[in-house]
Design a protein that fits this description.
By secondary structure, the chain is mainly alpha-helical. It is 54% helix and 7% strand. The protein has 2 domains: 4-75, no CATH class; 79-207, no CATH class. The protein has 7 helices and 4 strands, in the order ββαααββαααα. Strands 1-2 form a two-stranded antiparallel sheet. A two-stranded antiparallel ribbon has the order 3-4. The termini are far apart.
C-alpha cells in the first residue's frame, strides 16, 4: 500500500511545503518532488537560490578541473613543453655526472649551485642543445656573469674530452651553422629524454 503524507517540507526547506498529499518516498528530499514545489522553492527563496548557486559553482569547478587536466595532458605532448622537459632531464644528468668536479671554465671547487653550462650556446647551436659533450658543470659566475668564460672553457674542455672528441664537437658545431632549417621533432625529443633518464638511473646506481 502506498503511503501518502502532506508536503510540509523539512531540513532547510521546512515550513515551505505546498500542503498537497504526496507519496511518502518523495518527502525524503525535503519537499514534494512529485508536486514540483521543491523546484519552486529552489528558484524563489534565498536559501534555495543559495543551494542552486553552490551546486552550479561546484559543477563548474569540476568541469574546469577536467578541462584543465585535458589541457595539461595535451600540453605535455606539445613541442614547447617537450623542449623544456628534455632540457631539465639532460641538465639533471649533467649536474649528477659532474658532481664534485671543478668548474669547467675557471676551475672553482664544486658547489651545489653549479649549473649546466653549454660551450656552443644552445640558442645558436640548436642541434647541440642536448649533446652531453657540449654541456658541463659550471659555476654561476662563469655561466651567467662571464657569459660562459669561453676562452678558459675551451682549454679545459679540450683536456677533458681529449683532442679527437673535442674536434668532433667543433665539426658538429660547424655543421649546425650550415643547417639553418633544423627543427626538433617530438619523437626525437622523447627519445633523448628516455636515453638520459636511463643514464641518470645508471649514474645513481653507481654512485650509491
Amino acid at each position: 500500500m502506498i503511503e501518502f503524507k502532506k508536503c510540509k517540507g523539512n531540513g532547510k526547506a521546512k515550513g515551505h511545503g505546498c500542503g498537497k498529499m504526496v507519496k511518502a518516498k518523495f518527502r525524503k528530499y525535503g519537499l514534494g518532488m512529485e508536486c514540483k514545489c521543491y523546484h519552486k522553492w529552489l528558484l524563489n527563496t534565498d536559501i534555495g537560490q543559495s543551494i542552486v548557486a553552490q551546486t552550479t559553482l561546484q559543477a563548474t569547478k569540476n568541469r574546469r578541473s577536467l578541462e584543465d587536466a585535458k589541457a595539461e595532458s595535451k600540453n605535455k605532448d606539445s613541442l614547447s613543453y617537450l623542449l623544456v622537459n628534455v632540457r631539465n632531464v639532460v641538465h639533471k644528468y649533467i649536474k649528477l655526472r659532474d658532481k664534485g668536479k671543478e668548474c669547467i671554465s675557471c676551475g672553482a671547487k664544486w658547489h651545489s649551485d653549479f649549473q649546466a653550462g653549454h660551450f656552443f650556446k644552445a640558442e645558436l647551436y640548436s642541434q647541440l642543445k642536448f649533446d652531453s659533450d657540449n654541456i658541463h658543470g659550471q659555476c654561476p659566475k662563469c655561466n651567467i656573469f662571464l657569459e660562459g668564460n669561453l676562452n678558459e672553457y675551451s682549454l679545459r674542455l679540450r683536456k677533458k674530452l681529449g683532442k679527437n672528441k673535442y674536434l668532433d664537437l667543433v665539426k658538429k658545431a660547424e655543421l649546425c651553422k650550415k643547417d639553418t632549417k633544423f627543427k626538433w621533432d617530438k619523437f626525437k625529443l622523447k627519445e633523448i629524454r628516455e636515453l638520459f633518464k636511463e643514464k641518470i638511473k645508471m649514474l645513481k646506481s653507481v654512485q650509491n
